[in-house]
Amino acid sequence: MNDQSLEGRIRDYDDVIRLPQDGRSPAEISYLTGIADGTIRGWLVDHRKPWTRYELFRPTSSEQLSYAIGVYMGDGSISKQGNRSVLRLHVKDREFARRFSSTCSQILGKKPYSVRHIADRDKYETTVANTSFCKFLEQTFSQLDPYIRDHPSGFLRGLADSDGCPAITTTKKRGKPWFFVQIVVATSTSIPLLSYARTILGECFKLKATLVYKGKPRPRPYENGFFHSKKRVFDLRISRFEDIRRFSRVVGFGLSRKQVKLESAIAVRQSFGSGEKAVEEWTRNWEHGKTEWVRRKGAS
After folding, report:
1. Which helix (H) or strand (E) holds 101?
2. In terms of pTM, does the model score above 0.85?
3. I want to staple 186 with a disulfide (CB 3.0 to 4.6 A). Which of 113, 159, 182, 282 is the partner?
């Protein structure tokens, strides 16, 4: 048996099962098919199935599956280890890693996968070793589209939890304070991904989103120097306030820190508008940290 992939093993298994047995021994069937004697014996005598080792995944549309697709396309990665594939999420947010671990466990009918802290990078990682599930996630947009459209909010939420955020701006416009709320649904170098997400937003929820050019990724350490990417980064943004409110209701962020911030910003915008009073109210409860707005200690 030359093909050691899951699909190859299943094809070989089907060929062996279809062969007229007529009292043939596993050794004789091995000679006819080129499949190892021990493998034949396991299938015909011990009644083992070739996909048991690989935990064959049979997809069923669900909110959880759609969310997992979104997370994989946003922040996930798949690595090969011999004939096996491993799905990995490596992120700064512990809540996110735990949420993804729980989601995958529900999809695959397993106990929640472990989440470990990578101390030297201050990141959290969870891995799912299931070759069949990985092959499913690696399919094209058109192949995954039916599962996404059955539960579009799950897919968009997975993207938003990965690279999205509430984008709150306090600045000056014509010399006066200005409070502005947007939603970054996703950030990516992949125009096809962002365009597909924009289509789902429009066709499934009547939400308008635009692509905004952000520039090129920051240089990152690589070996003895820095790696400079030539790819361009884009945001997929929702800017109309009514669409922002609707996104919060029908999709929302799965991560509590992002959703709480979005709801707080919407409440300020609704009650105080977009001028000086809104800026004062927002900064009374929130302050800008190193990379994002964080709630002040003791804020209501």
Report:
1. helix 94-108
2. no
3. 159
